[in-house]
Design brief:
Largest sheet: 6 strands, mixed
Order of helices and strands: EHEHHEEEHHEHEHHHEEEEEEHHEEHEEE
Number of strands: 18
Structural class: alpha+beta
Helix content: 25-40%
Strand order of the largest sheet: 1-18-17-16-14-15
Mean pLDDT: 92
Low-confidence stretches: 2-8, 10-16
Strand content: 15-25%
Oligomer: single chain
Amino acid sequence: MTATTLNTATRNTAAPGTTAADTTALESGRLDRLRASLAAAECDAGVFYDPINIRYATGTSNMQVYSLHNPCRYAYVPVVGPVVLFDFKGCEHLSDGHHNVAEVRSAISWYHFVAGPRVDEFATDWADEIVALLGPSTTGRRRLAVDRLDPAGLHALERHGVDVIDGQAVADRAKVIKTPEEVAMIRSAMAACDDGIARMRDALRTGITEQQLWSHLHAANIESGGEWFETRLLTSGQHTNPWYQECSNKVIDNGDLVAFDTDMIGVGGYSIDISRTWLAGDNAPTDEQRRIYDAAYQQVEHNIGLMQPGTTFREIAERALLPPEPYHSLTNACVAHGIGLCNEYPLILNQDHFDSGGYDGVIEAGMVLCVESLASETGGRESVKLEQQILVTNDGPVVLSTTPLADTPT
């Protein structure tokens, strides 16, 4: 399968390793950016429950997936002063001596699973401890940013006269520009992902199931020090249309397209979100497979070229290439989205969706973005999903993956 190559971005060819000093600089730089974002929001401090935000602030990681749905650990981050990590009871030793954490305490858990009918009581105890840390206001507002907060906790803070604002927006503004150390770690995570994808490509044969093929990338991620996958998006043949069906025990047949979206939390906790579509077996691609592949390829390559510093999100929406009919209606609403430790701000929608659900902003050097394409026909047999992860530089976008888009050399 072939497609016309558009030279819209420079390809990355190296993924440098990191040292302990690099990791210290990485974590310190992130904390500095978060404190600056808190200060810009006129907050005294922030309390962060999202494990992605805890990691961004402190560099610590513990039971990441469990704590996504059980608020069992949190971090107190003042604009000025010591960071206090509240960890799951019995896990306090995991972060002892960490350079970003001045003190580790046992978390007060007050979600219903552990608190039952005592939620309000335990939430009050939690708020009392947070307010004691907050102390006298440095801003005159006693303002606290919190990223996730159930009603009992919000009411308990409000009884203390604390002004609570959206901490997720504060964290997003900190994360939008990547430090040089973050870029180096993302390159390392991408190199590990590219290696895992190569293993999948070597393992692809007719008769293998989708889940068996998918397991090769999971194994490579764990072996490299990566962590988990946020979705299960690998499908084949008629299972690719409509898109967003999950990986199954379907057998991959000769001539099937195999499409996947990595969505992996990899080395250093950094997310790698790229998509490729391959042809299984030894059949030549059909005319329809060539058409849908070329539509998706042209879309992603054109739209990468739009990711220039100073370009507004609205300008991108207006200029973004959409696949032609009959593939237009099912293409992704998303032209591009930010990425770091997970999918992040911004989300840039295409012209069909921008006015109803989008928002404006500006592309800046230092952003890392994922540019998406999808060619899929209503009632058609197959879909093609492609996606590239890029670094925005002053000279334009740089593609970070070395895995080719085209299924065969172009």
